[in-house]
Design a protein that fits this description.
This protein is an alpha/beta fold. It has 20 helices and 20 strands. Strand 15, helix 13 and strand 16 form a beta-alpha-beta unit. Helix 10 packs parallel to helix 20. The mean pLDDT is 95.
């Protein structure tokens, strides 16, 4: 992922550590506050087309800590832009030293200051005339829930007609746990200071942030990277576009790799169709579909582009263990292998998967029932001679690591990272915010695309097929997984706009891939 601009996702402690690194370089904390307020003011000015000829009435609601200090700087800058500015003290007089200094500059400028004091009568006329509301009540350190006074204030702000801009974190939201207890200030736009925080991208509470913009305040990538913990990051469309394998004017099918998909069974023929379709639609030059002979009548008519490799099946309609020789022979011609989608879970398939991990010398993705097979002998991963990607959902991850599903849902990043590091593999832990990590790459990817329309059988098969396609085309395992996860969610978001989340099928996303990929070429 060299050269790709990462959008870091940091906790409150990590952000403070990065700020301390910046201070060590010579930037003072007061200067960082000044930089933050100025950067936010510029973003607001640009977004709302503010100028001397087009001033706005701006209400800036400030807390008594450093977030309120940022708000005081914003107030001063908006006043300099010619706006009619009112600063409302939501929690009384500022207490943080730097915030006190910034507040004194607001007072010196003669900017209108009002005190909320739990008095809606004071609040109402300012909300009614405001054209923009800036909320700078709490920053990244807030936990718990708003008290009654601030809850009333939040409800009034949420009911106002003016758009709300939150500074760093909407007040009432817990930055690190990405949760909300009780009332929260709902933002139309949130300006993240220096980097995203978990609340900005983790569903479902990310919805309270509205549109996201990152403010550059002078903290560098090195300031963030040089902290004593692994950082998370997310990516946007342009970053992913730059990572995708390029199509060459002079090329042939061999140029773009050969994906072998060992998928399907009598009961799960669609898994093979979706996985193979994903591999084809994402650009692999050749795709071989290996499936049980007994499923040939159901699978073969759906697959006209790939090479077909029907192999021995057992009485359950899944691969027989004797199919292993055919799979290994086919893998010698492939550049990447996918095993597991719709495979079925029995003694034959378990032996097949565990032996393939030991024998196959090509990068390999293990999905679905392949992961269930792994759970019977997880240490087999340490015998793999080629890179391995696993793509579990929380239930499958629970069987792999022995932790409960609630534990995994509460700590997906740390659990995925620890598992990846322990076994030396790439983990794609699927969920509302899918996590990708390999325990060694510089950072953990947290995905922000996708919607609940993907919460149905077959979506994971399509994702696995997309990932093996990128892997076959020569991408590194981590990069292939990240691109597949991002695009899988992005394309589902586009499909949902034209259909619905309720009625959307994985095959709808598959069929939409060619049109959506036109934007990436």
């Amino acid at each position: 992922m060299t050269g790709v601009r990462k959008m870091f996702v940091v906790t409150s402690k990590q952000m403070y550590a990065a700020e301390c690194n910046a201070v060590k370089r010579g930037i003072s904390f007061p200067q960082l506050m000044e930089n933050a307020g100025q950067a936010c003011a510029k973003i607001i000015k640009k977004h709302f087309c503010i100028s001397k000829e087009n001033p706005r009435n701006v209400l800036i609601i400030c807390g008594k800590g450093k977030n309120g200090g940022d708000g005081f700087v914003i107030a001063r800058k908006m006043w300099e832009y010619g706006c009619d500015v009112t600063v409302m003290l939501a929690c009384g007089e500022p207490k943080a030293r730097d915030a006190v200094d910034m507040f004194s500059l607001v007072e010196s400028a003669g900017i209108n200051i009002v005190r909320y004091n739990n008095n809606l009568t004071v609040l109402k006329p300012h909300l009614e005339k405001a054209e923009i509301i800036v909320e700078a009540v709490f920053g990244t350190g807030f936990t718990g829930s708003l008290d009654h006074s601030l809850s009333v204030l939040a409800q009034a702000v949420n009911a106002a007609k003016a758009p709300v801009v939150a500074i760093d974190v909407p007040a009432g939201a817990d930055c690190d746990s990405a949760t909300v207890q009780g009332t929260v200030f709902k933002a139309d736009m949130t300006i993240a200071i220096s980097a995203y925080k978990p609340i900005h991208i983790m569903k479902p509470c990310s919805k309270y942030c509205g549109k996201l913009v990152v403010a550059d305040i002078g903290i560098t990538t090195d300031d963030i990277k040089n902290i004593d913990s692994v950082t998370c990051f997310t990516l946007g469309t342009q970053e992913v576009k730059s990572m995708l394998p390029k199509r060459k004017p002079v090329s042939n099918k061999g140029t773009y790799g050969h994906a072998l998909c060992v998928c399907g069974s009598m009961r799960m023929t669609g898994a093979a169709y979706l996985a193979v379709g994903g591999a084809l639609r994402c650009g692999a030059g050749l795709v071989t579909a290996a499936f049980p002979q007994s499923a040939y009548p159901a699978i073969a008519p759906k697959l006209i582009e790939p090479l077909l490799l029907p192999l021995e099946s057992n009485f359950e309609g899944t691969f027989a263990f004797s199919a292993m020789a055919g799979v290994i022979e086919a893998s010698s011609r492939a550049t990447a292998v996918l095993a597991g989608c719709g495979l079925g879970f029995n003694k034959d398939t378990t032996l097949l998967v565990t032996n393939l991990i030991k024998e196959i010398k090509k990068p390999m993705i293990i999905d679905a029932d392949g992961i269930n097979a792994l759970s019977t002998n997880i240490d087999i991963l340490k015998e793999a001679e080629a890179p391995i990607i696993i793509t579990p959902h929380p239930g499958e991850m629970s069987r792999l690591c022995g932790k409960s599903i609630p534990e995994i849902l509460a700590n997906p990043i740390s659990i995925a990272y620890d598992f990846a590091k322990k076994y030396g593999i790439t983990v794609v832990l699927k969920g509302a915010n899918t996590v990708v990590c390999d325990g060694k790459t510089d950072g953990i990817y947290v995905n922000a695309t996708g919607n609940s329309g993907l919460a149905r059988g077959g979506s994971g098969d399509l994702l696995a097929g997309m990932a093996v396609s990128f892997l076959a085309q020569g991408m590194k395992p981590f990069d292939a997984a990240v691109c597949a996860v991002y695009l899988h969610g992005l394309f589902a978001d586009e499909v949902a706009k034209n259909t619905s989340m309720r009625g959307m099928l994985p095959s709808d996303v598959l069929n939409y891939l060619p049109e959506l990929f036109s934007k990436f070429e």
